[in-house]
Amino acid sequence: MSRAYSLAYLTAHRCTPAEAVVMAAELGYGFVGLRLWPNAPGAPQQHLIGRPEAMKDTLAAVRETGVGVFDLEIIRIGEQFDPHAWDALYDAGAALGARAILVAGDDPDEGRLAASYAHLCEVMAPYGLTADLEFMPWTAVPHARAALRVVRNAGSPSNAGILIDALHVGRSATTLDDLRSLPRELLHYAQICDALAGTHFSTEQLIHTARCERLLPGEGSIDLRGLMAALPADLPISVEIVHLEREKQTDARQWAGQCLAASRPWCEA
Asked: What is the DSSP code (8-state) at residue 127?
């Protein structure tokens, strides 16, 4: 069964949203992911919110190419959480026809985190967006079991989701059985890359790899074959591979093409 592929923000971080859409179409991706909200104050992002011309150009690219916007980044649920702080992101998602928003859990009080997540899902529902909670080993949602627990404690909202990133599977206490046990209705997409697997890395090393030094599929030791076999065969795949040093040797289009070519054999075998 063929997969749908999305060009993730980190793979195309050098591109504007409109440029990413056009490039995705040229390379054979069906979707793009956009980071319209930074993952930390002042961190890199794609600028679209509050910029009518950029939105106009992106919408034109979507219409002309047929490439859709799959997911937007990023909402972080901390101890002091107000889902309406991201209203502009929801508006952008609705305008772009996006499907999902990536969510990170940072609140160490899991009960409060679940309540905040439930509130977020409620606020996002009218926009037609799913809230896809990504487990990351350095956050308050360190593995797949924790993500499922948060979703269930939130009441399993109809637009809840759990996002699986191969990197975080390979570097957390997540097992393939954990992935198989996730309800199908919570799985909207997964992210692929490679790296050295293991749970011995420091927080600094985990974050550095995630944001700066991911490997092409097949170059590391993550069990990508087992991971993909544990997921639904029709699950869309977001190609999320950033390697800042290697990217200096190539342009954005060549890099995004290499990433898709390296990913396909692991997702379609």
From this structure: G
Q: Where are the chain's structural domains?
A: 5-268
pTM: 0.96
105 DSSP β-pair partners: 77
Ordered per-residue pLDDT tens for the chain, 269 residues: 478 999 999 999 999 999 999 999 999 999 999 999 999 889 999 999 999 999 999 999 999 999 999 999 999 999 999 999 999 999 999 999 999 999 999 999 999 999 999 999 999 999 999 999 999 999 999 999 999 999 999 999 999 999 999 999 999 999 999 999 999 999 999 999 999 999 999 999 999 999 999 999 999 999 999 999 999 999 999 999 999 999 999 999 999 999 999 999 999 96
Question: Contact at 8 Å (CB) between 163 and 128?
Answer: no
Query: Cβ of 82: how many Cβ atoms within 10 Å?
Result: 12
Which of the following CATH numbers is that of domain 5-268: 3.40.605.10, 3.20.20.150, 3.30.70.360, 3.30.360.10?
Answer: 3.20.20.150
